[in-house]
Amino acid sequence: MVTGTPYVGSEVGRLREVIVHRPGIELLRLTPETMDELLFDDLLWVRRAQEEHAEFCAVLAGAGAEVLELSDLVRETVTVPAAREFVLERTFDERVHGPAAAPVLRATAEAMDEARLTDLLIGGLTKRELLELTDEPRSVVLHALGPDDLVVAPLPNHLFTRDASCWVYDGVAVNSMRMPARVRESVTYEAVYRWHPRFAAATFHRWSDGPADGAATVEGGDVLVLGGGAVVVGMSERTTPQGVERLAERLFAAGSADRVVALAMPKARAFMHLDTVMTMVDERSFLTYADLGMLPSYTITPRGSGAEPGEVELEIADHPPERMHAAIAEALGRDGLRVLTPEQDVHSAAREQWDDGCNALAVAPGVVVTYDRTMTSNSYLRESGVEVLEVPGAELGRGRGGPRCMSCPTVREDH
């Protein structure tokens, strides 16, 4: 691997480059009435969340990673005419905004400079803000809205840069998102990876599904890159078996991976993604939630070879729950795993898991970033020989996503 070339060879190899997103106006759009639709359980104090996020970025930089801000990437991307056309075409759709309003919205956005357009794409637009820029079109959709209703929905979940795209060895999956509030996030990443100068000149595979139009969805919080060609994917409330099979086909056809272990997870909010209940902290150690238990698992391998996903046949071996750790160890090429599960009573464990106690981000083998609020997990990790770099999470933690959720590694060494 050449340093700087997009490549993620493991969960725990030294982190060299990572995409994050600083909380912004999109979080100010959250209200008690809209937060459920936008997938938040609480309202964040945005200024404090920004301060905490700055500390998170400083820790990443101090650990040797170059930190890329998503808004900067988007702003620099939409200076490219083809990229601007791509995002406008996929943002202003008459099926969303109606045939009367969509052309007016698009024309208004086309007239914006790259900074204002980036704010619109991520932060959304209210009717009042629109009417400051143009006359109100003869649109039933717009006439039915109140002055402060949103015409273009914000993307507050961009805070969690892990999910809409995830790098797996020498390629990136731009994912079809399960929830409608997150579908447009994939458009952002597709544009960045296709046209931003940092990525446009690089050589890597890009696996893209576009907006979800079927049951095959995958989100990056469910994908763990074990190293050595192995991948673990959680089949959660957001990632489906159909999505796992499609991802496996693409990885195998590209020669990027040769085995995928799929875990059948509970379909519940508390188990939203695999990395909310299990993350890797060194070459053979996993931090897990006490109530996760053992899950049915499936090892997927390619039968034969082919240059295209449709030419690859999948060999699938299913394992009973008690074989879960053995299946992961075999994929890793190890005799066994070290499973780290802090001992707590059931209520304390549930609270700490809800606060992202298992959502550790490794910046090097045996060195992880966690929230300071998950004290029991942090103490247990230290007792187990893992170095813990704490970051404040009093406000960020209200978003129900920890350090791993808020990071999209683009360059990481093999472990």
From TrEMBL:
Active-site residues, as the UniProt record annotates them: 405
First-level EC class: hydrolase
Lineage per the UniProt record: Bacteria, Bacillati, Actinomycetota, Actinomycetes, Micrococcales
E.C. code: 3.5.3.6
Catalytic reactions of this protein: L-arginine + H2O = L-citrulline + NH4(+)
Name of this chain's protein: Arginine deiminase
UniProt keyword terms in alphabetical order: Arginine metabolism, Cytoplasm, Hydrolase
Localization in the cell: Cytoplasm
Gene: arcA
Pathway(s) this gene product operates in, as recorded in its UniProt entry: Amino-acid degradation; L-arginine degradation via ADI pathway; carbamoyl phosphate from L-arginine: step 1/2
Main location group: cytoplasm
One Gene Ontology term of the molecular function aspect: arginine deiminase activity
Organism domain of life: Bacteria
Protein family: Belongs to the arginine deiminase family.
One Pfam family named in its UniProt record: ADI
